[in-house]
Amino acid sequence: MAAPSGRRDGGGVASLWATLLLVAVALRPAEAVSEPTTVAFDVRPGGVVHTFSQNVGPGDKYTCVFTYASQGGTNEKWQMSLGTSEDHQHFTCTIWRPQGKSYLYFTQFKAEVRGAEIEYGMAYSKAAFERESDVPLKNEEFEVTKTAVSHRPGAFKAELSKLVIVAKASRSEL
């Protein structure tokens, strides 16, 4: 079952599909695919645009890029996790604050994929932590294109704690 292209569905079929893909990546035989990679990085306030990126897949054929600007407080520890499906035709990129809700005020954000097209993308104002659940942004606060999940200027309420992308290899990569 494939998720509708470019659709956001906080609790429906697309979310189930993304969860199943993540589980499949996590449970696959180690020799069949690249190990999921999780890298910690600092989200730094100050209003300056920052970028963090990682590659995954055979020959690092997929890239996930997180670009943002934020204000208030001090640095926060965030993580970017990447994994590929057994056939290397899908990859996931999750960017989040492991402690749950960020206290930073984001003025902009964009999570972009290279080498693939997004089949599912979602942004959250609060990441699951302990007994609390993810809280998705309202649909009008962000947009999903073939290659990015980003804020909508004028509609985004400055709260961001998690981004999830499931993408499929671009036709040129197949």
TrEMBL record:
InterPro entries: MYDGF. One of its GO terms (cellular component) is extracellular space. Residues 1-32 form the signal peptide. One of its GO terms (biological process) is positive regulation of endothelial cell proliferation. Keywords: Signal. PANTHER family: MYELOID-DERIVED GROWTH FACTOR, MYELOID-DERIVED GROWTH FACTOR MYDGF. This is Myeloid-derived growth factor. It comes from Phyllostomus discolor. The gene is MYDGF.
